[in-house]
Design a protein that fits this description.
By secondary structure, the protein is an alpha/beta fold. Helix content is 40%, strand content 19%. The chain contains eight helices and seven strands. It has a seven-stranded mixed β-sheet with strand order 3-2-1-4-5-7-6, sandwiched between helices. Strand 1, helix 3 and strand 2 form a beta-alpha-beta unit.
């Protein structure tokens, strides 16, 4: 696959999403795992929330011929992705839409597969998961990756060792927000302690069950800091 990244005048966002694209296409196991996770599922439409350049959509568009939609809240959504797809997979049926995770502009059951790779920590989790469940068809698959509390405790430790006080303060704020979420079932949405939060498997299972979703298994790229899951939406009985 031919690769093209941002030019010398590319913004920091361009550089970031281009680098994410490069890492994805440079590791064939990531595309293979995505396809293996949905093996046996009839996949015609795929949504990637927090899509960046849309690299997570590549195997679905190029291998399965699925119609793919990348969604991100940033105003720059699709600027890099369209260029990279045009250069590397010009026939791939991929479009980009700017939207918030808490209010997706799609009908109920619009997608066979929904991807959410590390967007959840930065959203209103309850509303985001409700929207993901709404747009996922019954029997469909959600590929979800989260930030565990360990992600932020590691960040706190590393920041303190490096003397990076702002980063350490951020980690403390997120840990405080996550603890409140764990204890009360309500995610803080104020600047203090933080709008960002961690998830644990226990909390995630609880939130998923409320929306007819269930963890099927952990994916191969799962690790203690950023667990990954294959999640299904129950088909109606």
């Amino acid at each position: 696959m031919r690769r093209e990244v941002g030019g010398p005048m590319a913004s920091e966002y361009d550089k970031y999403v281009s680098a994410e694209w490069e890492m994805f296409v440079g590791d064939a196991s990531r595309a293979r795992e995505s396809l293996e996770a949905v093996a046996g599922l009839d996949v015609g439409r795929v949504l990637d929330l927090g899509c960046g350049a849309g690299q997570e959509l590549l195997p679905f568009a190029t291998e399965l011929g699925a119609s793919c939609v990348g969604v991100d809240v940033t105003p720059e959504v699709g600027l890099v992705g369209r260029r990279l797809f045009a250069a590397n997979a010009p026939s791939a049926p991929v479009t980009f839409v700017r939207a918030a995770a808490e209010l997706l502009p799609f009908d109920e059951g619009s997608f066979d597969v929904v991807i959410c790779r590390l967007a959840l920590p930065y959203t209103d989790n309850a509303r985001c998961l409700s929207e993901l469940a709404r747009v996922l068809r019954p029997g469909g698959a959600l590929l979800l990756k989260i930030h565990h509390a360990r992600y932020y405790t590691r960040k706190l430790r590393d920041s303190l060792r490096a003397g990076e006080l702002p980063s350490a303060v951020h980690a403390v704020r997120v840990l405080a927000a996550g603890l409140i979420y764990q204890l009360t079932g309500r995610q803080p949405r104020m600047r203090l302690p933080s709008r960002e939060t961690f998830q644990t498997v226990t909390l995630l299972r609880r939130e998923l069950a409320r929306r007819g979703l269930e963890i099927q298994r952990e994916l191969r790229d799962s690790n203690p800091l950023t667990p990954s899951f294959l999640i299904s939406r129950h088909a109606p009985r």
